[in-house]
Every structure is written in structure tokens, then in C-alpha cells.
Amino acid sequence: MKENLLKQLRFCTNLPSLPSVALKIIDLAGKADTSLTQINHYISHDPALAAKIIKTANSPLYKSRYPINNISQATNILGTYGVITIALSFLLADSLIKQSREKLGMTGNNSFWRRSITSALASRTLGKRLGMDKILDDLFLAGLLQDIGILAFHALMPEDYPPVFSLTEDHNALLEAERQTFDIGHDELGAALLEYWKFPSYAPAACRSSHTAPDIPNAGINECVAVSGYITDYFLSPDKKEKIDETTRIAEAYLGLDGHALIEVLEAMQNDLHHVEELFEITILNPAHLDNIITEARELLTVRAMIKVRELEDKIQHDGLTGAHNRAYFDGAFRSEFQLSIQQGTSLALAMIDIDNYKTFNDTYGHIAGDGVLVTVAKAITDQIRQTDIFCRYGGDEFALILPGTTLSAARHILARVMESIATIAYKPNEASTIRITASIGLAINMDKEKSFDLQSEMLEAADRALYAAKYAGRNRIVEWNPALTSPLKT
């Protein structure tokens, strides 16, 4: 069916036709020696078109420094190629809007063109945001035509296509339904139509790529046109909040634009949409509705950005294997808690926890099994501590537990539960073996009744000395630091 449809493009009498002025302008667009005089001559044959181009040159979209009164001045401001592209946009919109209503009898005709013109503005605005100032009019035209294949489908399959078109709410779902039913989508069919009409090559290329993800983010016409479709879907279906998430993801994947940049694009579109509506004589959104869309998008993207930052912070602050806070987080948290303990006179407990005989286990059963032990022990500890306690992987098989506002008596109870929880682990490194796990713990307390340490480093060293005293004394026990403790540090 695909090949038959492509062949029918040349012979279908129901297919929308281009006005003669548009055909001549397309011809001029393909010639390197096209002059302003030639352009002005053909545009002047269509007074309505000339008036629209003059109005366009005077619009805020182009920010002319002085009033434009005739087509020659407009051409000088917009440039030869700019006038060609803008003229094509107007001619095609005017002609095809009428034909889609009269010749094709399309239902939802206005919705189709609301989407097409919004996509054109979105494509142009994305290009502006990305510094593609020399091809803004190309971007507008390519965005306008990216769904032209839908018109072609209505012309070629007047009986079979409308049910497919009307039963799919989502634009990507429509494309998939087309491919399943007709073995071709409106992206490929539209590109073939534009090639048949002899449009500049960038237009069919953008149409063909309008639903194709790039390998890497790239600021090009194809990518801007593809993203414009997602922006338009959000503009015209703002009640579906998940669309802003999808649009943000696509803008970043296709163009490298983050949520903040996307908001700037939406706000720029808000400023320009009324001018585009006037130029194309179509109502897309009422101002109040548009304000609500932008406000909601800004709020949603702000929330998403905060969540993303928190997730990134969480990832940076946690050990990837065990889920405990990492050493860098421990250093900052312990520094803060120690200072708070000194300033406010509140008690602070620090426990250093080391898995007994871990190296032997790791050497015997391998690193994968060793990692499994670390994960299992970390969970056993986490299950026994409070939300206010700070659990960290200090390094290797050693963990640190910061217990803010915790007296010696309370710390003893918590650590006793921790030791018991670890001791109940029956770890199976393989089907034939079951290993019992124990841990040694060193505990240091500050400001229980009086200050014990002047520096955080002293308290950390004290907990470390207590830990190695516990290991020296036979492991699987808790040792509390005291000034008389002289057990050797690890060497």
C-alpha cells in the first residue's frame, strides 16, 4: 500500500493544488540568481499577499526600526529569501485552509491549522532561542508544513483515513496507527508531497524527520521542527500535565534545552502568538487560557527542576552500593553535628562499625558475594536506627553512625539492637554455604554530662580507637571510648 500511495501523489485529482504564485515563488527559491525585482513583481500580482508581507515586516516579530509602507521596503527589511519563505507560508496557509475545508471536506479542519500554525511559531521560537537567526523563516515554514501528509492522506484515502484520524487523540499514536493501517505515516507521505511540489530540500527533510529522535542533541531545522510538535501538543492539550514532562524530555534530548530554557521558549511564544494569529487570521488560544498554560508550565517545570536537583544531590551524597550516605557526606554532617553539640551543649554519639573478618570472606567467596554482605549489613543497621540518625559508609567494610542528641545510655540501646540485627544475618554466598556475620563497634560520646572533646577530629579518633579495641578484644562487641583506652589504632 505504501508504494501505491506514493504513486498516487502524481495522479490524485483530489489532492490540494498550489496557487500559481506559490509555484512561481518555489521556482524562484531554487534559483541562486533570484533578484528582489523578480520577487516584488510576483508578489505585487497578489495584493492580499503583498499587504500581509508589509504587515509582517511591521510586526514585532521582525522589530523594524521604521514604518514599512510598500513591498519594496518590506523586501529590503526581510531579505530576498525571507520574503520568499514568508510569502510561501501565507500562500499555503490561505490556499490549503480553504481547500481542506471545501475540497477535502476535512472535519476538525480548524484544529489541524491551529496545530500547524502553532507548530510553525514554536519551531521559529526554538530557533531564535538557539541563535539560528538566519533561518527563522525557514523554521517557520518547515514547522507549518510538518503535518502536510495528513492533508495528503485525506485526499488519497477519503473513506479509509478519517476513521483513523478521528480515533487517535495523541499525535504520535496517529502516526503509529497510520503506519499499521497504511504502511506509511504522514511524516513520510508529507515529505514525498513536498518533494513532488519541488519545495526546497530542507522542508521535506524536516517533514520526514518530524517524529525521529536524533542520535545526539543538535540545533538544526529537523530537531526544532520535531520539538515544535511536542510544544504544540502541550499548548493545545494543557489539561494533560504529563505532556509538559514529555516536552521537557524531548527538548533536552533533541536540542539540549533544559526546563529553564523551555520556559523561555514558551514565554516568547506567548508574546508572539497574538501577532501570528493576526497575520494568519486565525484564533488559536484566548489570552486568559494562554496565561494559564504558561503559569502552569512554569510551576510544573519549577517543581520538576527542584525534584531533579534533589535527586542529583541524593545521588551525590549516597553510596551507590549500600544506599548509605557516603564519606563526603559524613565529613560535612559530622562537622556540623559536632559544632552544634559544642554550641548548644547537646549530647552527640559517634559509632564506628566494622564487619568482622570481611577480608577473609571476600577473598574466599569473591567480590560479588562481598558486595552482597555489605548491602545486607547496611540494611540490618538501617532497620534499627531512627530517622534523625545519620548512617554512612565510611570506607570499605566500615560504617559510621552519627547519633545527634543521644546520651551514652540511649546509644547503648541503639547499638545493642544494631549488633543483634547483624548477628541474625545468615548470608548464603552460594547454595552450599551459609555464613554468620558479626560486627565490632567503637563508640564515643561528647557532651553527655560534660565536654569530652575539643575537636571533631579528636572524637573521630576516639571512636576509631574504641573500634579497634573491640576487634583486639575478640570482635563481635561494643567498646566505649574512655581516656584510659590505649588500644592500638589500625596499622
TrEMBL record:
- Domain of life per record: Bacteria
Please list every transmembrane segment annotated in the UniProt record, as residue ranges: 77-97
Keyword set includes Transmembrane helix: yes
Keyword terms of this UniProt record = Membrane, Transmembrane, Transmembrane helix
The UniProt record lists the EC number as: 2.7.7.65
> Tell me, what's a Pfam family for it?
GGDEF
Domain GGDEF, chain residue ranges per copy: 346-483
Q: Which reaction does it catalyse?
A: 2 GTP = 3',3'-c-di-GMP + 2 diphosphate
HDOD domain segment(s): 15-213
InterPro entries, alphabetized:
Diguanylate_Cyclase, GGDEF_dom, HDOD, Nucleotide_cyclase, Rev_trsase/Diguanyl_cyclase
The UniProt entry, under PANTHER family, shows: DIGUANYLATE CYCLASE DGCM-RELATED, REGULATORY COMPONENTS OF SENSORY TRANSDUCTION SYSTEM
- Show the NCBIfam families listed in the entry: GGDEF
Q: What is this protein called?
A: diguanylate cyclase
The opening ranks of the lineage are: Bacteria, Pseudomonadati, Pseudomonadota, Betaproteobacteria, Nitrosomonadales
